[in-house]
Amino acid sequence: MEKNHRAVSNCITEGVIWKQLLLFFFPIVLGTFFQQLYNTADAIIVGQYVGKEALAAVGGATGVLINLLVGFFVGVSSGASVIIAQHFGAGRRDDVSRAVHTAVAMALVSGLLLTVVGIALSEQILGWMSTPDEVMVYALPYLRIYFLGMIPQMMYNIGAGILRAVGDSRSPMVFLIAATMTNIVLDIMCVMGMRLGVAGAAIATVASQVISAVLVTYTLMRTRRIFKLELKKIAFDPRTLARIVHIGLPAGLQSVMYSLSNLIIQAGVNGFGTDVMAAWTAYGKVDGLYWMMVSAFGVAITTFVGQNFGAHQYERLKKSVRICMGMCAGVTVVLSSVLVIFGRPLLTMFTNDPNVLDTGYNIICLIAPTYITYISIEILSGAMRGAGDSLIPTIMTLTGVCLLRVFWVMGVVPRFHELNVLLISYPLTWVITSVMFIVYYMRGRWLTHCIATQDVNP
Fold first, then answer.
1. Closest of 1, 30, 303, 3 to residue 167, by C-alpha
2. Listed residue (233, 195, 268) closest to 100, CA to CA
């Protein structure tokens, strides 16, 4: 029965690779698009109906802090997706079940911790970021309400990761669409109708997170497949937890270091005033069109490598990496061109302030053409993580991206105090880190080590 289940439902380990990648990729990117729309709706409505100070608060001032705290736990929990993908690819029913219930326990505990820490430290961290007083008055209430939704947010992230690990990228997409529609309707009601300002935007976001969490939990509980969620089994399995942390902790630390480096950049941006902060926030929403695409490729290749690694199909694993890299490069060239050509009209969705528009379009023209230098980091790190190698990729990212970026912002930027000098840190660090990833991947020792580890811990 188990063998038949795998043969019928698991297409990731068989078939034409590029077709299977696309079938898996499109629901992810469409879901990510709605997730981006989910966040963008807040920025558009708040920017147009409350003001540029509120726009700067909802996006720039709060976004980095949210990514810092939430990103760590999401990164750690990504280890569960890798473990589940490997067990599912190998057809190990009991191991899949243990990993699912351990992952859900992690979501509940981490969500509670994030709620407490986020509410307690929001004001202090916003102060460290040199957030202007006129922005702080909007940012603080938004954050405190937002952090009330951490448990449902973590439940959705874990649940979506479980479904994608077993090859189902469609269901998370559907759940995000439902949550996005809820968020937009409530944004209009709370911000435009009831005039609740940024508090209304935060309430709408939390409510939509609850919707997505309920949907994904219901799906996991109703399925009859080997990843079925049973409430009475939710608990930490020590051995499974250790493996999840072993793979996920480096990813969590990498996310924290990314966020810390971006926190430092955000503090630098804040030093240029409210107009630049608003421009950076608006750019971040437009820029998200690209990052949702490249991150979807990263999720796709992690799942593909994880399942094929579990099934001992190593040549198919390596071929899928090459194909995914080529697909990602093609999409990157197209989207970079679109953003440069249509960047200014896109920015007008968020604000009509001429100074903000000029600054935002300058940022697009500087950064968007250099996206191609990043793809090796996303695809190769995703592939290595899928096979269980997360430590070395994390060290390379921390060194090449995070530490070098911090050095640039703290050592070089103060000498010039120009926005373009600050922003050039992005392509500079991408190029250096990509070279390290390509060299490490081509040497092949990472895969040999992962195979040896797999034989020890089946």
1. 303
2. 233
Triad 59, 60, 62: Cα angle to 5°: 75
Alpha carbon of 90 to those of 85, 312, 357, 384: distances in Å? 9, 8, 52, 18
Crossing angle of helices 274-310 and 375-387, in 10° steps, is 40
Q: For residue 442, give the 3-state DSSP assignment.
A: helix
According to DSSP, residue 225 is labeled S
- The percent of the chain in helix, strand and coil, each rounded to the nearest 5, is 90, 0, 10
Q: What contacts 214, CB < 8 A, 6 or more positions away?
A: 152
**Residue 374 carries which DSSP code?**
T
Q: Domain extents for the chain?
A: 6-456
SS3 of 5-18: HHHHHCCCCCCCHH
Other Cβ atoms closer than 10 A to 270: 21
297, HSE (Cβ side, Cα atoms, 13 Å): 26
What lies within 8 Å, CB to CB, of 275 at 6+ separation is 52, 353, 355, 356, 359
Q: Annotate 249-317 with three-state secondary structure.
A: HHHHHHHHHHHHHHHHHHHHHHCCCHHHHHHHHHHHHHHHHHHHHHHHHHHHHHHHHHHHHHCCCHHHH
Token code pair at residue 344: 């200014």
Per-residue pLDDT for the chain (458 aa), expressed as one digit of tens each?
A: 334 334 334 568 777 888 888 888 888 888 777 777 766 776 777 777 676 667 666 665 566 667 767 777 777 778 888 899 888 888 888 999 999 999 999 999 989 998 998 888 888 877 776 677 777 777 788 888 888 888 999 999 899 989 988 888 889 889 988 988 888 888 888 877 787 777 888 888 899 999 999 999 999 999 888 899 999 999 999 999 998 888 888 888 877 777 777 778 877 888 788 888 888 888 887 887 888 889 889 888 988 898 899 888 889 999 999 999 999 999 999 999 999 999 899 888 888 888 889 999 999 999 999 999 999 999 999 999 888 888 899 899 888 888 888 888 888 888 887 888 888 989 999 999 999 999 999 998 888 888 887 655 55
Residue whose entry in the numeric block shows the structure tokens 């939509």: 208
Phi, psi at residue 227, to the nearest 5°? -100, 20
CA distance 300 to 102: 23
Could you tell me if 240 and 86 are in contact, meaning their C-beta atoms sit under 8 angstroms apart?
Answer: no
